[in-house]
Amino acid sequence: MPPSSSVRAAGQLGPVLKALRQAKGWSQTELGRQVGLSQERISSIERHPERVTLGQLLTLLMALQAQLTVEPRSAAPTAGPW
Question: Would you list the DSSP string of 45-73?
Fold first, then answer.
């Protein structure tokens, strides 16, 4: 399985999902079969993860034996209001 990844932007999510899928040796078709989505939808999620619904993301993560963790970021010395 790929090492743990921090995702801080939607664009980073697609490669992480793809790496998790490939680590299981699954094609997009196989992952789609596992979660009830088409190969085309899996491809779309990997290419445009900003368009995935939360429900679909959680279902994908469950099938990939991964989890979503939400935690505060470490404060940087020059951090702005966020």
Answer: HHH-GGG--HHHHHHHHHHTT------PP
Residue 33 CB-density burial (10 A; 0-12 exposed, 13-18 middle, 19+ buried): middle
**Is 61 in contact with 67 (CB distance < 8 Å)?**
yes
Q: pTM for the whole thing?
A: 0.82
- The full set of domains in the chain, from first to last, is 10-63 (1.10.260.40)
Q: Is the pLDDT of residue 79 over 60?
A: no
Question: Which amino acid appears at position 45 of this protein?
Answer: I
**Structure token pair of residue 33:** 């079969």
Distance between CA atoms of residues 48 and 54, nearest Å: 14
Q: What distance in Å separates the CA atoms of residue 81 and residue 32, rounded to the nearest whole number?
A: 40
